[in-house]
Amino acid sequence: MALHPEISRITDRIVARSEGPRRAYLDRMQAARRQGPSRGHLSCSGQAHAFAAAGPDQEALATGAQGNLGIVTAYNDMLSAHQPFERYPTLIRDAIRAGGGTAQVAGGVPAMCDGVTQGEAGMELSLFSRDVIALAAGVALSHNTFDAAVFLGVCDKIVPGLVIGAQVFGHLPAVFIPAGPMTSGLANEDKAKVRQAFAAGECGRAELMAAEMAAYHGAGTCTFYGTANTNQMLMEFMGLHLPATSFINPGAEIRDALTVEAARRALSMSDLGEEYTPVCEVLTEKAFVNGMVGLMATGGSTNLLIHLIAMARAGGIILDWQDFSEISDLVPLMARVYPNGLADVNHFHAAGGLGYMIGELLGAGLLHPDTKTVAGGGLERYTQEPVLKDGTLTWQPGTTVSLNDKILRPAADPFQSSGGLKRLAGGLGTSVIKISAVAPEHQTVEAPVRVFHTQEAVKAAFKAGELTGDVIVVVRFQGPKANGMPELHSLTPLLGICQGRGQKVALVTDGRMSGASGKVPAAIHVCPEALDGGPIAKLQDGDILRLDAGAGTLEIMTEGVLDRTPVTADMSGNAFGTGRELFAPFRAAVGAAETGASIFGS
């Protein structure tokens, strides 16, 4: 089917907007290609340092006759999503050596878990960890001894940070290799019920702990459709994974076969061969539009409204929230995965998964089919699924029908006609909202505000019985400049209780909400943030706000609010402890959420 004219128009607008920085970026990548890896030009001492521990690969590295693959890994064994990566370097080295090449771990990057730090001081480092990861990936590849790279990462900030880092070395091929989700445990809906019961004082900590351990029980990514699994979806829609590899569980035989094939594929695309496909030619304006389409069709994480903008800017491509909103209006919501449904990602994958969705969206003219991918060919390759036959990895056509229409629906008969994310504009500035899990009757809220400067103060007010009527809870001084823009997901259970009592309730904040944000409407990423003197800093208890997700507005109904002097807040308590003192330069340099909340320029 022909490309939808509105998708074409939005893409053309992005291309025009990005013309200057994109051209400068591509010129830099072409110059880097001409220089090539410098290992052949290193001094004998430099080469000896680089190859000293390479064992059987020393001679091949010294002669430089074969390709050398750099491995950038986010492995640690504390986090379930990244623990499977422990085995990957050995697996990759052995496979590449068998093919005549070499592979080295170029470096490691940190990986932190928002699930661990949720509601804690460490969450104030979370968003900044993305840019730290980008910096670390840059250091890893700075030895300039590699012909291609593979990136091992899964979760919230790790994949965006790795993508930013990969694009700095955009003249190299880059393949992203996932670890896969853990097998299904306690159903996400049942886990959420226990959390809400604990928040209401209806069960104890022992019951809560038992439920959490039953939900998070083994190696692999968490099974709900939050930021980590949204990242995996994007890597397929944008052509950086091999097809249909995102949601295969760790430990499966085919998982290892896909890891080996991804590494081989990375080297096959290097400038030493005939299929040179650098990442700068994969991550084009069309690829980012495809990523936004996937985000809307799956009802993905709000965090990607920041990350995709930052990722794109690393390659000279300028996205804005209006692009997301207009694409959301065009793209049907085709998936129901928790918190936007009862299923988890394993159920989603079994129902047809990303391959089915890509095929449907291509058929509807909502995806660019002609993007370059690491699999070779266009996006049509991503409708296929991998199989092992007698130990040999092959791809076969994926399903063309949903295998469970309660989880996955065709583009022509979706769960709703538009995607799950919206831009809001009005008297407070701009913000965004995820509505894929918000019931229609809760998508418009007009109510007086209660203003807080910390999420702990919100919890205290709830416990004191102060949040009893219709209310819009405003939590400000949570922006990137103020305290690193932490997620406020720990407020979800108590706000859900208020909603369940029949109250009209919403959250408005210049901070973030979790990728698992659900049924309570939350206008997040408010710009300008309070620390910059934005209108959110002028609100007082009792002012009336009106949030209308359908209309895309967040309006101040009380007169005279914008004439007030913005309040200030003492942020000294957020400057120290749990590593926060190390990030003062980040808070001073970071840009606004609407430009990616990055330290790499606004």
From TrEMBL:
List the GO molecular function terms. Answer: 4 iron, 4 sulfur cluster binding; metal ion binding; phosphogluconate dehydratase activity
UniProt record, GO biological process:
D-gluconate metabolic process; Entner-Doudoroff pathway through 6-phosphogluconate
The free-text cofactor remark is: Binds 1 [4Fe-4S] cluster.
What is this protein's gene name?
Answer: edd
Which function does this protein serve?
Catalyzes the dehydration of 6-phospho-D-gluconate to 2-dehydro-3-deoxy-6-phospho-D-gluconate.
* Primary enzyme class: lyase
- Give the family, as the similarity comment puts it: Belongs to the IlvD/Edd family.
Gene Ontology CC annotations of this record: cytosol
> What's the EC number here?
4.2.1.12
This protein's cofactor list reads: [4Fe-4S] cluster
Name its pathway.
Carbohydrate metabolism; Entner-Doudoroff pathway
Q: Which residues bind [4Fe-4S] cluster?
A: 155, 222
Does the keyword section mention Transferase?
no
Chloroplast as UniProt keyword: no
Q: Which reaction does it catalyse?
A: 6-phospho-D-gluconate = 2-dehydro-3-deoxy-6-phospho-D-gluconate + H2O
Q: Which UniProt keywords apply?
A: 4Fe-4S, Carbohydrate metabolism, Gluconate utilization, Iron, Iron-sulfur, Lyase, Metal-binding
At the top level, the lineage of the source is Bacteria
Where in this chain does the record put each Dihydroxy-acid/6-phosphogluconate dehydratase N-terminal domain?
68-380
What is the name of the protein in this document?
Answer: Phosphogluconate dehydratase
